[in-house]
Amino acid sequence: MRTINKKIVIKIGTSTLTGGSSFLNKPRMLDLVRQMAALRSKQAGICLVSSGAIAAGKEVLDFPKLLKTIPAKQMLAAVGQPRLMNVYEQFFNVYGYDVAQILLTREDISDRTRYLNARNTLSALLDQDVIPIINENDSVATDEIHIGDNDNLSAMVASLIDADLLVLLTDQRGIYTSDPALNENARLIKVIESDDIDDSIWEAAGGSKNGLGTGGMLTKLEAADTARRAGITVVIADGKVDDVLLRVAKGEEIGTEILPTVDSLESRKRYMLAGVRKGNAVIIDHGAKEALLSGGSLLPVGIQKVLGKFERGEIITVRDQHEETVSLGLVNYGSDDIEQILGQQSDRIEDLLGYVFGDEIIHRNNMVVMRK
After folding, report:
1. Which of 206, 228, 262 represents a domain boundary (last residue)?
2. Could you report the per-residue pLDDT of 246-263, keeping only the tens digit for each?
């Protein structure tokens, strides 16, 4: 059985939202919202990655006959996104939860400052009991910044917030040994636990391990492979199953479960170690060290010295008075700013800098403690 009070990213595809029709299936959407609200009430941090904007746009415009061009799809997404959000807002409000719309592009994940902003925003929303509803910014995305599908977007979001579980809801039971529509002997694969997913599973999903192919189960397997390497458990399941989200969250055997290749802490350590630049560090006093070792954030009052030059969003080393590494983390402030506020209480940051990105130099959610 899983512990429910964890971070869960849920991706719902268009086919699940519409039930295979041309319209948003509101009873089904309300039932999925009911399940997400129930999970949130048990202290699970819920992020929803939802498709359906283009389908909603077609419905709003009474299904216009349009060429299948990128501008036409972007127009439909722009029209449909407010409609989709309005439905979610009404349904979550039934259960006492507010929602927030987050539209992302690849640049928001790859650029260090945007990455930190997105991560901090999502963390703040979860702390306030708000349900983030995330979609790709289809109305403005170009080929260079386009993620391409919400399956892979959900894996990026799961990695962004250090999720424990990613649930990909679809219109199939999970991943099969071959296409069940063509082979009556196809079997559902219940668990994938090997470090490398077998070639036969990639082929059964509709492509190769090199990613040749698009859409359908293949993108879900690609997303699952990305997430599992960040220490995240993934479940691909049928959105029509009764109480599917509640049952998956509890650890019930539904769909295909893809187990992580490393634990999440080890994954974060690898990410931090790969991104830190030698020499970029802060020296902290004993009180700050004790706070970090107890799970706290790094505040300016505990910093004694800044080493190196770095910008907001970079990974730096936090060292104690004996120059031993205590932790690594993503900084909310650059080195020049920290020089001006070190040793000060957090309520002095805005007075000294003229702006504030938060009370913390490094928030505990953006930090890995390296030693005890």
Report:
1. 262
2. 999 999 999 999 999 988
